[in-house]
Amino acid sequence: MPSIVKFAVPKGTIEEATFRLLEEAWQRVSGRARTYRIKLSDPEIEVKLLRPQEIPTYIQEGLYDIGITGRDWIREARADVKILLDLEYGKVKQIIAIPENFQFNSLDDMITAYAKDKKTIRISSEYLTTISAHIKSRTAYKKYYGSSDPMIITPWLRIGENKNVEIFLSFGATEAKPPEDVDAICDITETGTTLVQNNLKIIDKVMESSSVLIANKNSLRDDKKREKIADMVALLRGVVEARKKLHIFVNVKKENLDELLSKLPALKRPTISTLSEEGWYGVNTIIDKDEFIKIVPIMRKLAQGLVVTEPRQILPLEEIKIEKEDI
């Protein structure tokens, strides 16, 4: 019997980008408009929409075999999962920001000033464990508060003994909290525009995050599931790689062929075929997108009939292998 792989995909800010990825990898995706249960063209994969915050823990606990989430949420959950592939979208920075009229240039400056004035720093964030660990790692925090844990405050929980640094759980609109409610925020930003609009400035960077494909380690130890997951990795990696490439077709005269080939970048080797008109050849190859502008002048001088397409997938099948010893 086939082994069903349970696949958790994120709902929310990276949902649209995720579904574009799935559609390019599996061609047919249905059910999204009506339910949280999604169907791919592969009946051996069960897909469900979940919040990205939940996915690392659910994968770790074995409720799902594989999932897509952000590196930031893996760190926040301290989840013991295997990262299989960086999907290269949903790229954000996790930062600490304060009102722009505060006279601090770093988190250490702020901790020092508040400690000397015996004032409590209040921070708002969805990333409670991440900001707690990050602030504890600062030199100024160790100097004034040693190894004590900042106090984390939620509607249902208070943990940590250091009341001089309080971290409040945010349920959204974190950037709107300062200065009336808190002194600083820990949040993610892509361009920084929302921070500027709310009169905030960045004083520290916690980490950079992107969307990644993760797996439950026990699922990877199951031979059937591991093989199915390797197939899924191949399809998704094929999309990720294709987005960085262009497929070009060009016609070239025999006397210009060698010079063109010597100047043409290629993924492996270009394919060369004779055309119906004697003395002409067709060349097709895959190049990096950032190489295209550089080769246009070469094409204009040496070739004719340039056709450019964007490949849907590029599958380096020989490289897709998940070894048990790597888990």
What does this structure look like?
With 327 residues, the protein is of the alpha/beta class. A hairpin with a 5-residue loop joins strand 16 and strand 17. The longest helix has 20 residues. It is globular, with a radius of gyration of 26 Å. The mean pLDDT is 92.
Tell me the domain tally.
3
Helix content: 25-40%
Q: What's the level 1 CATH class of the largest domain?
A: Alpha Beta
Largest sheet: number of strands, sense, barrel closure: 7 strands, mixed
List low-confidence stretches: none
Please report the distance between the alpha carbons of the first and last residues.
25 Å
Note the run of SSEs as H and E: EHEEEHEHEEHEHHEEEEHEEHHEHEEHE
- The fraction of residues assigned to DSSP E strands is 25-35%
Total helices: the number is 11
CATH topology of the largest domain: D-Maltodextrin-Binding Protein, domain 2
Average pLDDT for all residues = 92
Question: What's the CATH H-level superfamily name of the largest domain?
Answer: Periplasmic binding protein-like II
The largest sheet has its strands arranged as: 2-3-4-1-5-14-6
The value of Rg in angstroms is 26 Å
The helix/strand class is: alpha/beta
Please identify, by name, the CATH architecture of the largest domain. Answer: 3-Layer(aba) Sandwich
Tell me the overall shape. Answer: globular
**Strand tally:** 18
